Structures are given as structure tokens and as C-alpha cells.
């Protein structure tokens, strides 16, 4: 005699979740187990985040073996753009259930690409306990992406010199970006290395000088670049757009920099007043055009 009681156990219910949702749930379970494992072996949040990043790198290396299409000679695809497209689409879907928002080619540097993601790369199933509120879960994700980009084995096609310049001896990829990391393992972008001005034995960040000049109420926009100098290397020049209805002199700009920055960061190349700053299609300062412009113009 059969029982009339309906079967309500979750085991008897159909699995209606999509593959993407299942992958995310498994990823969340994996992450929570890893956090617990590392937490039992760590004495501080910083140490915990470091362990998460290291394990993430191991996971990222394994993901390459599982998801990346290899050539017949068992070598990974070496084309940089194909590798970045793989990260943006396939790898991002595996990790985060969706493609990254955009893969963008920098207008002012043919060797630079940006993978853009508007949402935080922390899985939606993961919640951090209150007593671990300062824990940055993204260190695990960052480790995965880092492994993919540094251990993928790609290089510049038929350009060994560019490969040598871009990759360190241990095959780490040199992005050319300057970042600093705080005690909570958050990373902050500072400047592109190639944009630093070289004055004698010193390096000057244009962004630092620009941030000071922007404090002046008459300045609508500003960009700092350098002009070549045989003795000193480069001399900083400020290109200033004056706000409508305001006035400011070159000496006032120089005095503002003098009062706020060290002697090595002074505007020894002068000041130029422009109607607008040359920009790229992505609304960034077009540094190459700016440098070409200031070389031909009279400085104050």
C-alpha cells in the first residue's frame, strides 16, 4: 500500500538551477572553506588576505589548465589579445557568472588594455562575519586573475625585444602602473610609470602637480607635462585652462606650486594657457599630443 503523503524532501525536487548558478554556488562554498582553512592558520587580517591571494593564484593556474584551449604542441595560445578576451569572457563567467563589462584598448598606448568591471568582484553568495569586517574578499579573486595573467605564457608576436621589456626575468608581466597597498590590502592607482617626469635624479608625478594647481579657483582644468632639457632631463610645464569670468597669471600658478611642493617639483618649464586640454576618446589627457603641443608653444 503506497503512502499518500507527498514527497517534500529537497532530494526529490527537480534541479531547476542553471549551470551558471550552480557554478557560483560551488565557487562560494569553495571560498568559504578556504577562508575557514586560512583563518585557522592566520594571526591577523593582513596574513589572512595574503594566504587567500596565494591560494587564489594556485586556483587561477589550475583554471588555465581546465578552461584554456591549448595548441596541438601543448603550448597555450600566445596572442595577448586572445588571452585578454579569454579573461573577459570565459574566465569571468566561471568566476562571477557574467562577462566583464568591457575590454578597452588605451588610446595613448598600443600595448595597454583595460578589463573594466563596474561591480565588485566578490561573489554575491559570500558574506563576511562582523568580526572580520575589514577582510577584503577580493584578494582571493585578485590572486586568481594575477595567476592567469602572469603564468599564461603569452608574449609579443615576433617581437622578442618588446617581450623582454614587458616581462621580468621570472615571467611576471610589468604593467607599467604604479600602485600602493594599504594595511587592509586595498590597492590604489597612482600613475603610469612612463608618465613620470625625470628631472635630474628625481621623478615627478604630473598628477601630484596637477592636484595642487586645481586648488586655484580660477583653474578649470590643468595638465602637466615635460619639455626636454639637455642638462636636467625634463622640465615640468603646466598647461592651464582658465575658468570663464576668472583671471590668473603664470606667476600665481608657479607660486601655488612653490608653496605646496618641494623644490624638485617646481614649474621650471613654465606655464601655458590653453582653451582646452587635448583628450583621448575615453576622456583621458592625451599626453603625447600635449607634449608635442607644449614644445612648439611659448611658455611664461
Automatic annotation (TrEMBL):
Main location: endoplasmic reticulum
Keyword Protease set for record: no
Subcellular location: Endoplasmic reticulum; Golgi apparatus, cis-Golgi network; Peroxisome
This protein's record includes keyword NAD: no
Entry keyword set: Endoplasmic reticulum, ER-Golgi transport, Golgi apparatus, Peroxisome, Transport
One cellular-component annotation, GO: TRAPPIII protein complex
Recorded superkingdom: Eukaryota
Gene3D superfamilies: 3.30.300.30, Trafficking protein particle complex subunit 3
One of the protein's GO biological processes: endoplasmic reticulum to Golgi vesicle-mediated transport
Every AMP-binding enzyme C-terminal domain range: 208-284
Function statement: May play a role in vesicular transport from endoplasmic reticulum to Golgi.
Family recorded in the similarity comment: Belongs to the ATP-dependent AMP-binding enzyme family. Belongs to the TRAPP small subunits family. BET3 subfamily.
Protein name, entry field: Trafficking protein particle complex subunit 5
Species of the source: Papilio machaon
